[in-house]
Amino acid sequence: MLGAYLPILLLVIVAFLFGMVSLVLSSLIGQKKITPLKLSPYESGCKPVGTARERFSIKFYLIAMLFILFDIEAVFLYPWAILYKKLGVFGLVEMGVFVVILFVGYIYVWKKGALEWE
Question: How far from 42 is each of 32, 35, 36, 46, 54, CA to CA, in Å?
């Protein structure tokens, strides 16, 4: 039984050793010339303006999470559309309930003003 897992164990050992050897060799052989140009931040070829510690509004994160939440519904709608004929009326009703729940959540978020960007 353990013989079946031997190739996987060998692969893990080889991957670990490769990573360790690469790190050790790069630290021993690699150049260590630190220049101000290497230490400067780089952003799309432009010199940065302002500080990198700027605070973002909580609305930014809230909108991002809501986008992910409501975008995930497409992940569930696609398989349903593929299997629509096999699921029949039961699948239609279940997907209707799912869409209604999502719509109620969307209306709730809208009424709370979470989608307002001010």
Answer: 19, 14, 12, 7, 17
